[in-house]
Amino acid sequence: MSSPVASASWCTTGASWPRRTTDGSSAVTAPSESLRTHSAAEPTAAAVDVLVTRLDDDVPLPSYAHPGDAGADLVTTHAVTIAPGERALVGTGIAIALPAGYAAFVHPRSGLAHRLGVSIVNTPGTVDAGYRGEIKVLLVNHDLREPAVFERGDRIAQLVIQRVERATFHEVTQLPGSARSDGGYGSTGR
Ligand SMILES: O=c1ccn([C@H]2C[C@H](O)[C@@H](COP(=O)(O)OP(=O)(O)OP(=O)(O)O)O2)c(=O)[nH]1
């Protein structure tokens, strides 16, 4: 049986890491400095097809800034100023149809969090495969002093498309035991 490591398509900034040995096993060693530099030959996984409509003709389609990025950027269709501690529901001008078995998740952008203290209230927002309305983003300004100012077209979130499982729930009187049992909320210490 081939190892999952050997068969996976790896996203790296170098040609191939973990490095493969000639017998197909993986040699997990740190990439050399030269391999850490950007390569045009970055491997990318096959893309899933997602249908998109623009509810606003001028907005760009969701797009990935770099090969291997998990999130495609979404923009706001309106200028908005969010006062300290306040929130605002903003439109992206985009509606999508996902294949069955997929969902899209609206994630914050780390740059906005770092620069402005802006995140998303319900992070990550869940876009169901059957949802055909405009994708909206519930931004929150966590900064205590400065308003967060966005112009139309500013990137405000990123959309991560993922496969999701649908569960069948089976009621039982007792759950099987586990090492963690009911420990949580810091049960393993600081
Ligand atoms: O950040 C988000 C989250 C959700 N949605 C859309 C897509 C999603 O399919 C729909 C419903 O979202 P959710 O299930 O989170 O909402 P709910 O509060 O449970 O409402 P509902 O009763 O409509 O399911 O709203 C967005 O556009 N952006």
Any overview of this molecule?
The protein has helices at 4-7, 110-116, and strands at residues 19-20, 26-27, 51-54, 71-75, 80-82, 87-91, 94-97, 102-107, 118-120, 125-127, 136-141, 148-150, 155-163. The protein has 190 residues and is mostly beta strands. It has 2 domains: 4-36, no CATH class; 51-163, Deoxyuridine 5'-Triphosphate Nucleotidohydrolase, Chain A (Distorted Sandwich). The protein is globular. The protein starts with a helix and ends in a 27-residue tail after the last strand. Residues 1-38 have low confidence and may be disordered. The structure holds deoxyuridine-5'-triphosphate.
CATH superfamily of the largest domain: Deoxyuridine triphosphatase (dUTPase)
CATH class term of the largest domain = Mainly Beta
Give me the strand/helix succession.
HEEEEEEEEHEEEEE
**Low-pLDDT sequence parts:** 1-38
CATH fold description of the largest domain: Deoxyuridine 5'-Triphosphate Nucleotidohydrolase, Chain A
Helix content: under 10%
What's the alpha carbon Rg, rounded to whole Å?
21 Å
Number of strands: 13
The average pLDDT value, as a whole number, equals: 85
